[in-house]
Amino acid sequence: MTSTANAPSATSRSTPGVEIRGVAKSFRSGRRDLVAIDGLDLTIAPGEFVALLGPSGCGKSTVLRMLAGLDEPTSGLVTVDGESPGDLVASRRLGIAFQEHALMPWAGVAANIALPFRIAGRRVDAERVAELVELVGLTGFEKARPSQLSGGMRQRVSIARALALHPELLLLDEPFGALDAVTRRRMNVELARVWSEEPATTVLVTHDVDEAVLLADRVVVLSGRPGRVVHVEDVAWRRPRAAGLTREPRFHEVVDRLTALLDSPHAEQDPTPSGATP
Ligand SMILES: Nc1ncnc2c1ncn2[C@@H]1O[C@H](COP(=O)(O)OP(=O)(O)OP(=O)(O)O)[C@@H](O)[C@H]1O
Ligand SMILES: [Mg+2]
């Protein structure tokens, strides 16, 4: 395992730190307990960008749900800014893009992006909404409803909505999964740019190793279920990072190392329906 967290760049915003200590999470599955996560430890510094990589079903979305205060660990501790995660949600400092994009089906693109303002009881900042529509390349589609958009367009709405209130904690669950390779890389670079301007403590779940290495300060590799940390890779390259970085040998070295780890047996999913205890 490589060393500890990068010191994040100075920021005037009070981005929160995250502490995940000795966390286990089980789900009741029929008459058994399915152990999704076990012995998970991870500290994320304020303003740090962490990417989570790991096999399907190892608990990545579950980790994000716990950080968003939508779920609780079965044992162990999850804190954001030293507090229970729910407090951050209550103070509207959280931005989240779910794996399933969860848009309002009856509302247009602009109205979906504006939702966080309405939930917070704030006047909608039309300028901010327009800026985000442009950022995610949906100009001209402001009134289009989700059913009239492609999967990738819906994902882009979801990302824009997560950014709407300049969140201090940003949780992104495979936000670019439905995009074509070219759009995906463009969105990666845009996210890197936005993030450099407005650093938020960020946890990105992705299956794309290139994306993780391009965007994150640290890439955390989880084992197959039950998920725990098997490797932490420091990616200490200067920001803002341009797409050209992905053509450099040092980039490929790191990507190859992480890909090999994901291919190795300890990253494979427990084939029994659980790590389960009867
Ligand atoms: N609400 C739930 N009830 C029961 N089991 C659940 C629930 N949520 C998740 N699980 C189980 O916990 C495990 C981890 O699920 P999770 O969605 O966190 O995986 P993931 O790493 O995000 O996978 P993927 O990469 O496929 O999105 C899975 O085996 C899943 O079946
Ligand atoms: Mg998931």
Automatic annotation (TrEMBL):
Q: Which residues form the signal peptide?
A: none
**Gene Ontology terms for molecular function:** ATP binding; ATP hydrolysis activity
User: Do the record's keywords include Transport?
Assistant: yes
Keywords assigned by UniProt?
Answer: ATP-binding, Nucleotide-binding, Transport
Q: Where is the ABC transporter domain?
A: 18-249
Please verify whether the record's keywords include Membrane: no
What CDD domains does the annotation carry? ABC_NrtD_SsuB_transporters
Membrane-traversing stretches: none
InterPro entries listed in its UniProt record: AAA+_ATPase, ABC_transporter-like_ATP-bd, ABC_transporter-like_CS, ABC_transporter_ATP-bind, P-loop_NTPase
Q: What PANTHER family does the entry give?
A: ABC TRANSPORTER ATP-BINDING PROTEIN, TAURINE IMPORT ATP-BINDING PROTEIN-RELATED
Q: What name does UniProt use for this protein?
A: ABC transporter, ATP-binding component
The organism named in the record is Rhodococcus rhodnii LMG 5362
